[in-house]
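tool=predict chain=A
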Amino acid sequence: MDPVEILDILGNENRRRILQLLSFRPFYFNEMAKRLDLGPKAVIDHLEMLERAGLIECYRDDRRRRKYFRIADNVVLEVTFSPHSYGIRTYRPQVSQSSVAKPSGVPSQSSSDREAGRSEELEEICSRLRDLEEKRLHLRRLMEEIDSEEMLIKRMATGLIESSASDELDAEILTALVSGESRAEPLARRLGIPQAVVEERLGKLALQGKVQKRNDAWTI
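tool=predict ok
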């Protein structure tokens, strides 16, 4: 899954509206077009793009004789940027089936008992969701602390690089390697310069003792 492609897809407001709609329940085509107040051709184009990206999928309800669309899977898109770093990534969170509540095999109950049981189960689920939100907020605070310290350290590294690099291109290469080792080819793509130029500069920096090559990857 290409995170840059997904970011481009989400840049369209109507595609975001479609995903927002499908986050509640599956929709069939005509129902979706009416709810979004969009022309059929526009909806088809948006659905095809979302489906190609793997963000949604379709299935046919034989009983109702309709084709439904739904969100395909859990996907997290992360975009981070600061004065010293930039990155985009996607991943699929793993859902533990053991953590999902399953209905217990209770013998036949009266209608009122079943209704009360469902209300209690829904209340418990909402309580679990609130607990998870508290954990998410705690993790977010930890991430903010980590990001703040990381930015400070990268700022220190950038200062050292700028004072020791022979020119701006050397400084860019060294700054890119601060975040971790890299082969010459992806490093050239990140910097937007020819691979041959990057390899030549890396060789010179290696002679100066500023970088080293280990297992086909360059590192400071």
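Residues 183 and 216 are 6 Å apart (CA to CA). The chain is about 55% helix and 15% strand.
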